[in-house]
Amino acid sequence: MITQKSRLSSVLQRRLAWIGLLISPVILTPSPAAAGLLFKGTFEGGLEPEWESELCCSHSAGTVSSPTRGGNRAVKFNYRRTDATQEGARRSELRLDPVPQGSERWYAFSLYFPTNFQTTNGGFITTQWHHKLDEGESGHAPPLYLATNGQKLTLVNSFDTDRITPNREYQTDDWDLGALPKGRWVDFVFHVRWSANSDGLLEVWKDGQKLLSKPGPVTFNDQVGPYMKIGMYASGIDDEPGAYNFDQQTMYFDRIRIGDSNSSYAEVAAGGEDSGNPGGGGNPQPNGKVIRIEAERMNLSTYRVEATDGSASGKKVISLLGASKPEGTATVNFPGPSGRYNVVVGYFDEEDGRGRMSLKQDGQQLDWWTFDQKLGSGSMDPKTFVRKTVKAGVGIRKGDSFKITGVRDQSEYTRIDYLEFVPVGRYSATIDLSAAQ
User: Hey, which of 215, 248, 350, 355 would disulfide with 371, CB 3.0 to 4.6 Å?
Assistant: First the structure.
């Protein structure tokens, strides 16, 4: 649910007023040759030199061998209730340098909240994109942050088109992202065009599902763009210390990737070459692998293979563009071990028609849907890519037949990138069965 606000409460104003006192970091501007993937935070050799610490104590952060989302190390953040007695110690965070105002960025990161992460009346900001106040401005909320009270996740976006925001008067959108997942890794991808004008954009994916697409202003009209921060910030512990009823809170980050406008969802999203300890129980399959079958490798009827500019994995999709009939099919027999899987389809939902698609397993329909999302583009590009979990926890036997049926409408050619099977309870490497037929 999106709620609009023109002015923050006085309590939140006081909580955030200190922000204007932060030392201004140096702006990181990529060289003209820089393109695509700009940064990889794997923590394999400790904290990368790009991170600047905002830690009060020796226990605030450090790398650990378990749990990990990819590779052999992740970063662990601790916040103790007694930390608040330190001068300004409301945070256990790491930060990167700012990006240029108006720039476009892809951000991917994975979070892990242990099962004993406590629910409190006071909230923690766990990921934020901070701002640098211009001269004449008072403290205000960060343009974008992800927060939790231990019970649910909330995303908040604050913005203002005015050149100076002197009285903390601005607009805020917030979204309830549901219950806080505990005991497992949660993968996020953010696509942001950092503009205070109509050309701004905010897109968010969680565990491969697109949660929102918001065009328009997404930040403040500042001279310098925002900078990313990870960790825990007890935003209201000074004003309402009783709301933070815990001894210690702990959380983990891993596999942080940042790309520029030449990057894509596929390039930064979790999976690919990284693998690691899932860190969260569940019931993994025998080989613990996510099985991806590229659509162009399936048995096709009427569907045609179409090359892309890199928006799709393998730089190919199947499409009904130029096909002899308006309906096509793609079939494949499941090549992996029997077990329970989430069944996922990657496709493009363009704003130039209302194509339809269905997926069947051994003749039984798992789901059907219409390509009718408003994603801001009529082309096959990162804006229109959708990763849809068709059905979760499906029992699948080796050799089961899967059949995709697509029906084009106008210029919506029901373009499909891949079919994917994610073992229930497991988050690990993706294997591309390019030879599967």
Answer: 355
Q: How is residue 362 written in tokens?
A: 């051994």
Tokens encoding 130: 């901070």
Whether the CB-CB separation of 250 and 117 falls below 8 Å is answered with yes
Mean pLDDT of the region 235-242: 69
The contacts of residue 263 (CB under 8 Å, 6+ apart) are 36, 37, 38, 106
Q: CA angle, 190 as apex, 59 and 66 as ends, to 5°?
A: 35
Could you report the per-residue pLDDT of 355-369, keeping only the tens digit for each? 999 999 998 899 999
Select from 153, 152, 97, 154 the least CA-distant residue to 129: 97
Q: Which residues contact 389 (CB under 8 A, 6 or more apart)?
A: 208, 209, 342, 343, 344
Q: Give Cα 27 to chain centroid, integer Å.
A: 24
What's the rounded Cα separation, in Å, for the pair 254 and 43? Answer: 7
Residue-wise over 70-91: b if at least 16 C-beta within 10 A, else e?
A: bbebbbbbbbbbebbeeeebbb
- From the list 337, 284, 329, 341, the residue with the least C-alpha distance to 304 is 329
d(CA 41, CA 70): 10
Structural contact between residues 313 and 291, judged by C-beta atoms closer than 8 angstroms? no
E strand or H helix that includes residue 14: helix 10-16
* pTM for the model: 0.57
Spell out a b/e string for 371-397, using b for 16 or more CB atoms within 10 Å of the CB, else e: beeebebeebbbbbbbbbebeeebebe
CB 27 within 8 A of CB 98: yes
Pairing of strands 209-215, 201-206: antiparallel
User: What pLDDT sits at residue 86?
Assistant: 63
Side-chain-facing half-sphere of 312: CA atoms under 13 Å? 27
Q: Across-strand partners of 331?
A: 299, 403
CB of 75 within 8 A of CB of 67? no
Among residues 102, 93, 103, the alpha carbon closest in space to that of 124 is found at 93
Long-range contacts of 321-326 (CB under 8 A, 24+ apart): 321/413, 321/415, 323/408, 323/413, 326/407, 326/408, 326/409
